[in-house]
Each structure stands twice: as structure tokens, then as C-alpha cells.
Amino acid sequence: MADGRALICRRAGLRLWLSLGWLALLVVVAVLAPWVAPKNPLEQDLFSGRLPPFWVHGADPAFLLGTDSLGRDVLSRIIFGTRIALAVALISGTLTCVIGASLGLLAGFYRGWVDIVISRFIDIWMAFPPVLFSILLIAVIGPGLFSIILAIVVIDWTRFARVVRAEAMAQGAMDYVASARVAGRGRFSTMLREILPNVLPIIVVLLTLEMGIAVIVEAILSFVNLSISTDDPTWGGMISEGRTSIHQAWWVLVFPLITLFLTVLSFSQLGEGLKDRFDPVLR
């Protein structure tokens, strides 16, 4: 039994460090993009269009992952697309977490009319189809990085609110909360010092999952040309372009798709790994 538990812990630790390693690499690449990228991602060379990756016959060593139909370097476009993906993930994920978790914590701990008002507002908000709502919002505001972040925050805060509300209710019924109240601690102080630390592992997991979802949403909106300018490199835009030329230049589709998959998977596994390590109940 002990050996099996140790094996599970080692696998969880490996999963956590692999996810952290990939995401840290993306952060470094995004920050150093102007120096890391071998080419200008917007530079076109029609004479170098659809060159294959360096290991395929007929490749140009100057373009490690090949070029697209306009002769733009695929690797450089993926690197600069990392900036947009991470910016959307970090900003929208953080804002969504703060808004949703705060409302959920208030509703779950205070209950009463506070819970009724917040819960009804959540129910009304979730009645709108999220995909159509996001497209409509961006169509009204106009495409751009701000519009994407706003759409994600407006749609996804309810996920945090509902989960945190339920967890706060469960924690509020525990004996340690009653002990804190008997000791004379105020309700707001009890919520922050007693409830919040025990709800925090759930919030962290939701935050990392939300960052992965934000990356997917940005890619989907880029795929349908509702993200930032079509000239700017985005993973979704590259996937959309590569789809039309999959038989002539498969690398334009495959490499950004792999990067997107690994990033979303890393955010997901990071959340699970952090929960396994810091959740006081599991420990």
C-alpha cells in the first residue's frame, strides 16, 4: 500500500513539474519573442511559400518549421502567437477568478438574502448561450484583445461562483468555523482567515483550468476571424489557414495545433498537480 501511494505521489509530482516546465518555457519564449524568433512573423516571401520543415526534403534550413502559403516563418509566428495566448489566459483567467470566486465566497458563507441575490443572478446569466453571447459581444464591441478578454470574463465568472459557493457552504458547516465565531472573530474575518484558505485549492484548480479554456476560446475566435487583426500571428489563425492547405502544407496546421494542445493540457495538469500537493484534505 505504501509503495503504491509513493508511486502515485511520484507520478503526480512528475506531472506537475512537466506542466510547469512547458508553461515556463512558453513564458520565457513570449517575453523574449523579438530575440528568440528567427524571422519577422509578418515578413512575406512568396518565393519561399510552403517550404517544409528542416528534416523534409526540399526544406530551407533558415525556416526550421517551414513556411505558410505567403512565405512567413511558421516557428516565428508560433512564438509571437504565444504572447497573445498567454496574455489572454493570464488576464482573463485572473479577472474571472477574482470576480467569480469573490461572489461565490460571499454567497456561500453569508447565505440568506446575499445568497439568494447572487444565485439568481448566476442562474439568469447562465441562461444565455455562452458561444453565441461571446460572438455577439465581440461583434458589438469589435474584434481585439480587449474584446476577447472581456467576453471570457463576462461568460466564465459563473463557473467560479457556483463551485466556490458550494465549497464555501460545506466549509461553513465545519466545527472550526463555529469555534472561530465562538472565539469572537467577526464574520468577514472568519471568511477570510478560515474559509478562504480551505477553498483556495479549489480556486487554484479552477484558475488553471480557466486559463486553458481561455487559450481555447482565443484560438476558436481567431479561427473564425473574430480575434485580433488577421495579420497578427495567433495559433487559431494559423490553424484556420493550415486547414485550407492541409494536403500541400500540413506543417502550417500541425505545429500550432500541437502547441495549443500541449498548452491546454499543461494548464489542466498543473491544476490537478497543485491540488494534490496543497489540498489539506488530500494531505
Run of helices and strands: HHHHHHHHHH
Which parts are unreliable, with pLDDT below 50 for 5 consecutive residues or more? none
Number of helices: 10
Total individual domains? 1
Shape descriptor reads elongated
Number of strand segments: 0
CATH architecture call:
Orthogonal Bundle
> Approximately how much helix is present in the residues?
over 70%
Structural class from helices and strands?
A: mainly alpha
Cα gyration radius (Å): 23 Å
Give the CATH superfamily: MetI-like
Fold-level CATH name: MetI-like fold
pLDDT averaged residue by residue: 84
- How much of the residues is beta strand, in percent? under 5%
Biggest sheet descriptor = none
N- to C-terminal distance = 16 Å
| Name of the CATH first level | Mainly Alpha
Question: Describe it for me?
Answer:
By secondary structure, this protein is mainly alpha-helical. The chain has one domain (2-278): MetI-like fold (Orthogonal Bundle), CATH 1.10.3720. 74% of the residues lie in helices and 0% in strands. The chain is built from ten helices and no strands. It has helices spanning 2-31, 33-36, 74-110, 112-126, 130-141, 145-172, 175-182, 187-223, 235-244, 250-278. Helix 4 (112-126) crosses helix 6 (145-172) and helix 9 runs antiparallel to helix 10. It is elongated, with a radius of gyration of 23 Å. The two termini are 16 Å apart. The mean pLDDT is 84.
Q: Keyphrases for this structure?
A:
MetI-like fold, 283 residues, elongated
